[in-house]
Amino acid sequence: MRTYNLAVIHGDGIGPEVNHQALKALDAASERFGFRLESTEYPLGAQNYLDTGKLIEVGTLERIRRHDAILFGAMGDPRVAPGILERGLILRIRREFRQQVNLRPVRLYPGVPTPIKDLSPDRCDFVVVRENTEGLYVSEGSTVHGGTKNAVALQESVNTARAIADVVDYSFRLAQKRRKKLTLCHKKNVLVHAGELWQTVVDEHSPQYPDVEVDYVHVDAMCQHMPMTPERFDVIVTDNLFGDIISDLGATIQGGLGVAASANLNLDGQAPSMFEPVHGSAPDIAGRGWANPAAAVLSAALCLAALGEGEAALSLERAAASVLAGLPALAGPGMCAHTDELGDLIAQRITQGADADGCSL
Ligand code: NAD
Ligand code: IPM
Ligand code: MN
Predict the structure, then answer these.
(1) Helix axes 339-352, 15-33, angle to 10 degrees
(2) Which keywords appear in this protein's UniProt record, sorted alphabetically (predicted)?
(3) In this structure, which residue's CA is closest to atom 4 in ligand 2?
(4) Ligand 3 mean position, distance from CA 277 (Å)
(5) Mutate to test the pocket of ligand 2, among 9, 44, 86 (most ligand atoms within 8 A of CB)
(6) Is pLDDT of 356 > 80?
(7) Tens of pLDDT along 178-192?
(8) What is the pTM for the complete model shown?
């Protein structure tokens, strides 16, 4: 029987709450589609850090490396200074495992409430491809002191032609399989060095993909175009920070952070890819059962697709979309069901085979 070894990192806040629903969905799919999932939990995150003073041991990273994929919840805790868990765990894993592509689909599923007036699902189906290991995220930065009033904080952006080329090439190939349109998103009118390098790499790759139309949009203008005319976009390729920001905007358009999934893809086969919701640990709603598990389930669907279980992936996507269609998109006091109940409903629909429009994994 086909067997996959998953590393499971629940993390903090709502991370464990939503990740458990993703695991239920995966279990239901494995039974229905005839494969086996073996999962190993790695208790990393705020509590482990507070208890041991350690983020992750090299040996643990090496054990995680041997898995077929990583299912990740979320990281971040008010008891720990900002950046420690985020940089020391999430960003460390993305970088150590060379997960160069961060794929973030923005799809409005039928029946899901969106704050964008008159937006219909047929107009909103694009993908943000975010460079995942460089840019401003690499720099530790430095503060030149001279008293607080005179302090200067430096934070450099690292952009290598090699990493950009890998991500751009991936994006062209993805566009070829989709609607054949690639948009570079940057800020080359101001960040001239990095912007020029990104544009040059795109221009150099373009002749190899003559069927793909290429476009450029500044990141500030992107924030207007994405909600107003999402149909303009198919694959958007962008750097690490811009990708982080516009993907939360994308999440809003598609119905909220509770709906937005992501895949951190290793392209060289030397380490596992990692699948996680776009959202964070949401300490404001943790422990209440308000978290929407759809983003985690849709991330698990991306995991199955990457493992080659296409039919099973589609069943997770359909089940999540069909449950979403009946719900307010973001959790909160008005939410009509507990996270666990929604997870049960999604798993049930995977077992039964739910129909939902607009799914295409
Ligand atoms: P967040 O994504 O955790 O939450 C933003 C808002 O969206 C909150 O109001 C939250 O309640 C809501 N929300 C998020 N996910 C939801 C869901 N599934 N269902 C319903 N509502 C949901 O962002 P934040 O508040 O800026 O960050 C909280 C912590 O998470 C910080 O420590 C941050 O660094 C971290 N973070 C981690 C990741 C990650 O693990 N990949 C991503 C983003 C933020
Ligand atoms: C995300 C998060 C992370 C990022 C943080 C928590 C390091 O915001 O996955 O979008 O900036 O990439
Ligand atoms: Mn983010």
Answers:
(1) 10
(2) Manganese, Metal-binding, NAD, Oxidoreductase
(3) 244
(4) 10
(5) 86
(6) no
(7) 999 999 999 999 999
(8) 0.96
Task: Residue 205: name the closest of 223, 182, 185 by CA.
Answer: 182
Reported for 171-179, long-range contacts at CB under 8 A and 24+ positions apart, including other chains, are 171/129, 171/235, 171/237, 172/205, 172/206, 172/208, 172/209, 172/212, 173/209, 174/127, 174/129, 174/235, 175/209, 175/212, 175/234, 175/235, 176/209, 176/211, 176/212, 178/127, 178/234, 178/235, 179/234
Cα 128 to middle of ligand 1, angstroms: 19
Domains of the chain, start order: 1-100+266-361 (3.40.718.10)
Tokens of 205: 């790759």
Mean pLDDT of 123-132: 98
Condensed to tens digits (0 to 9), the pLDDT of residues 295-315 reads: 999 999 999 999 999 999 999
| Mutation probe of ligand 1 site: the residue of 93, 247, 281, 339 with most atoms within 8 A of C-beta | 281
- Residue 39 near residue 246 (C-beta atoms within 8 A): no
- Residue 210's contacts (CB-CB under 8 Å, 6 or more residues apart) are none
CA 286 to ligand 1 centroid distance, Å: 10
Q: Which of the two residues, 146 and 239, has the higher pLDDT score?
A: 239
Q: What is the pLDDT of residue 331?
A: 45
Which residues sit with their C-beta closer than 6 Å to ligand 2?
86, 90-91, 244, 278, 280
Distance 137 CA to ligand 1 centre (A): 19
- State which amino acid sits at residue 305: A
Q: Which ligand lies nearest to the CA atom of residue 132 in the structure?
A: 2
> Residue range 36-48: average pLDDT?
97
ipTM of the complex: 0.98
Is the Cα dihedral 322, 327, 331, 336 positive or negative?
negative
**Ligand 1 atom 17 nearest Cα:** 258
* Alpha helices by DSSP H, the chain: 15-33, 46-52, 58-65, 84-85, 92-96, 161-177, 192-205, 219-228, 240-253, 294-307, 310-324, 339-352
